[in-house]
Write a structure and sequence with these properties.
- The structure is a single chain.
- The protein is mostly beta strands.
- It has strands at residues 4-7, 10-13, 18-24, 33-39, 46-51, 58-60, 68-73, 78-83, 92-99, 113-114, 118-123.
- The chain starts with a strand and ends with a strand.
Length: 124
């Protein structure tokens, strides 16, 4: 199985930046597409972005496009989510997810492996 651990969350003021990391424990990471999702209290989990196996293609939700950027380092089994121009509405627990065959990137139900999440809080 693929074990994922998110890190890099914290408290930041509106307009600030955070860089989240998702580290995988297995060589299978390089074969997985990676997705980022977030969930605020009382809200459904929503798609943030995804990156394909090679890192050559990325996909973003309209709400974060132009502010967030995904990248991956397969040699280090790590995917990154760079978050700039943060807004209070970005406050949520952020999860990374992985799957060997997912093609419908925004669909959380298509991802087999999930991390435990990292809290991001953006103050106004």
């Amino acid at each position: 199985q693929v074990q994922l651990v998110e890190s890099g969350g914290g408290l930041v003021q509106a307009g600030g930046s955070l860089r989240l990391s998702c580290a995988a424990s297995t060589w299978m990471f390089s074969r997985c597409a990676m997705g980022w999702f977030r969930q605020a209290p009382g809200k459904e989990r929503e798609f943030v972005g995804a990156i394909n196996r090679s890192g050559g293609s990325t996909y973003y939700a309209d709400s974060v496009k132009g502010r967030f950027s995904l990248s991956r380092d397969n040699a280090k089994n790590t995917v990154f989510l760079q978050m700039n121009s943060l807004k209070p509405e970005d406050t949520a627990v952020y999860y990374c997810a992985a799957d060997l065959y997912v093609l419908e990137y925004p669909d959380a139900s298509k991802y087999e492996y999930w991390g435990q999440g990292t809290q991001v809080t953006v103050s106004s």
